[in-house]
Amino acid sequence: MSETTDLAQVAPAAPDFSGWTCPAPLRDQERIVMGHGGGGALSAELVEHVFAPAFGGRVLSSLADSAAVELGGARLAFSTDSFVVRPLFFPGGSIGDLAVNGTVNDLAMSGARAAYLSCGFILEEGVEMAVVARVAEALGAAARTAGVEVATGDTKVVEAGRGDGIYLNTSGIGLIPQGVDIRPQRATPGDVVLVSGPIGEHGVAVLSVREGLEFGVGVKSDCAALGSLVEAMLAVTPDIHVLRDPTRGGLASALGEIAVAASVGVTLRERDIPVPPEVANACAILGLDPMYVANEGKLVAFVPPAHAEAVLAAMRAHPLGAGAAAIGECVKAHPGMVTVRTALGGTRVVDLPIGEQLPRIC
Fold first, then answer.
1. Are both 300 and 191 inside the same structural domain?
2. pTM of the model
3. Which of 121, 223, 261, 286 is the most buried if burial means most Cβ atoms within 10 Å?
4. Residue 13 above 60 pLDDT?
């Protein structure tokens, strides 16, 4: 046996990427980068090529905000999320509020009302006990406001310098009402696209305190639990096709994912997309597009045209949907693509972002 052959038997084989089906940039990344956690194309490729093949399973394949499962004759929504926002406290909320509202909202996007949460604290050695208590109090208050109970939890501590103060993980379960079937694959040409209010507030609020920026007018996060808003919408009709909360990657990512999942096109009207002036000004200064900036208290809905007006009215009658607007339609043309009709009469494509404009915002 040759020396070359002996070495080949001992040396570990190089990873074989030839069977991977899609594009770079995942193939070109030998290590994890921040964009893999941004909710854009890099995140999608990581899930598609690494996690989904490793985990398998029919339920996971839907890749919705929460999984709809049947257990003991009941339909449950089940979701988990981790929170690494920096800083821990920001105008309008904190990591504790995000941990509750983010998971409650993921369950609500299946039409479920959250019932119970778990909570895991990962603490860095040296973090002040007063900070931990403040986060815990915010989390408990947010749970009570959302009408959910923190039923179980866990605590771990990592060495100083190996964390960033506090990371949180929450999981949640809730019941899906009978007759409700909300998932990205149900988007249908003709559906009216609704958004529950102004976009971009959370991302700009976090950025303002993180970087010490002043935009003339204070911007607060929209962080809120949307379960009661979804209930008001479902009271009009259970036939809501899709709900999605546009968090990481903003409105652009949420709509892009829905278009791909259902193989439909989405056409938006730029003039109808609600962007607060202070958010628009901040984005103009920083070179950001509000369509890609994160939200933590907004939802997007795809509603059949016969019910769209009534659902929109119900949204506007709710405190969390007072600024709701119809912003576009689901179409047969350009499947898998989102386009915007600009105020000047042109059309532009809204691409799925590679990573995210603002990392560590949730």
1. yes
2. 0.86
3. 223
4. no
